Amino acid sequence: DGPKLDRIRKKLHQMFQQEGLRITVEIHDDSVNYLDVVLSLKDKSYKPYKKPNDTPLYINAKSNHPPSIIKNIPSMISKRLSSISSTEALFNEYKQEYEVALEASGYTEPLSYESTQPFKRKRTRKIVWYNPLTASASEQPPEGSSSIFSIR
Fold first, then answer.
1. Which of 13, 47, 87, 109 has the fewest CB atoms within 10 Å, measured from its CB?
2. φ, ψ dihedrals at 39, nearest 5°
3. 141 with 147: CB under 8 angstroms?
4. How far apart are CA 23 and CA 27, in angstroms?
């Protein structure tokens, strides 16, 4: 399996080089960084990811943005971190850096883990089925009714 993966890696490098692009391929890695999430293939967990020298920066609490936006930034950050953390322990491990960034922007509210539950859709509308052709093709329509179809 190893030599086969290495051949695939070399082909990918070659294809990207022909187009003037570079690609990084890591074989036998137990985790994948996708956008702002690290997906662990080994233990099927996920946690926040950011580039090594990246520091979060948020709108200052005293800026001229709409008050509803400024008020909800800490809760939005809590929800996002909670949704990309598979457990509360992982959330607590990563929240410190985000709290420091929020404090630097003038927010005092601490981040808290919010358990994420799958969204269950509720349908309240009622569907009424109407089937006008209930009579079999051998029966004649009642007298006085108009019919689009001629039954013979």
1. 87
2. -100, 115
3. yes
4. 13
